[in-house]
Amino acid sequence: MIRREENGSTWLIHQTAHAYIAGQIAEHWVGTQRAFHEPRQELWLAAVTHDAGWTAIEQCPRINGQGKPRSFTEMDRDEHFAIWHNSIQATYTQNRYAGLLTSKHCSELYEQRLLYIDDTAETKARIKEFLIERHAWENSLIASLREHPRYGPAVAPERLAENLRLLQVWDYLSLLLCMSTVRENVIEDVPLRAGQRDVLYVAGSGARGMVLEPFPLDQPLTIWIDARQLNRSQFESDDDLRAALAEAPYKPLAFELGPL
């Protein structure tokens, strides 16, 4: 669940709705050469399904230590591992290459966590164990796809790294839109041209808009999702939150992306 605080109220956005936004960005992404990255359909599938494992746990939302609805960044370690496993499997069963990208996206996030977050020794050890499992699974899958007529070229190291980076960028842009009003941002190492990485400049446009330079989409987008709006930000218990959500209808939210 993504918690978006806006104008004195709290919007709760499903992770799968966030992934839908990432998928819309992926569908219209052409870079600066107005060309499509390949395999295009599988890249789109990874973008739109990479958080599929969140659906079950979001049926029983909980509060954090401050009484606020718990966001995706506040889950405990083992919950995250289970959710990632389910997300990867849900994507893999639809398409193996999309499942590979989803797994590598997960692995890269935990690699970055080991580098930049001062976790306990126990947590670091558990993450390393998890990464050993993921890397073994990924390497086995890559080996099985090398002779595939469609995916063989796509698992070559340079192509796979480029496609993974695209998934990371689409995911990040969607999170920027969902979490709060967009601020100025610089995203480095973005595959905007074939075989070359560039810098993407991001800025806000109104409460729910984003502008990009250079503009990598084939057209400006308005992306609609449905989310629930709560008129208070703190709750006494998990049951209190769930009761409030049960009475909160889904409402439309629109996010806009355009050129700077």
Question: Please, could you describe this protein's structure?
Answer:
With 260 residues, the chain is of the alpha+beta class. The protein has one domain (2-259). The protein is 45% helix and 20% strand. It contains 7 helices and 7 strands. The protein has helices at 15-28, 40-49, 77-92, 96-116, 121-145, 157-179, 238-246, and strands at residues 2-6, 9-13, 185-193, 196-204, 209-213, 221-230, 250-259. It has a 7-stranded mixed sheet with strand order 1-2-6-7-5-4-3. It is globular and about 55 Å long. The model has no long low-confidence stretch (mean pLDDT 96).
Layout of helices and strands, plus pairs?
Elements: E1 2-6, E2 9-13, H1 15-28, H2 40-49, H3 77-92, H4 96-116, H5 121-145, H6 157-179, E3 185-193, E4 196-204, E5 209-213, E6 221-230, H7 238-246, E7 250-259
Parallel strand pairs: 5-7
Antiparallel strand pairs: 1-2, 2-6, 3-4, 4-5, 6-7
Helix pairs in contact: 1-2, 1-6, 2-4, 3-4, 4-5, 4-6
Structural class: alpha+beta
Strand order of the largest sheet: 1-2-6-7-5-4-3
Distance between the termini: 29 Å
Provide the gyration radius in Å. 19 Å
Number of discrete helical segments: 7
Task: Summarize this structure as a short list of keywords or feature phrases.
260 residues, alpha+beta, seven-stranded mixed sheet, 7 strands
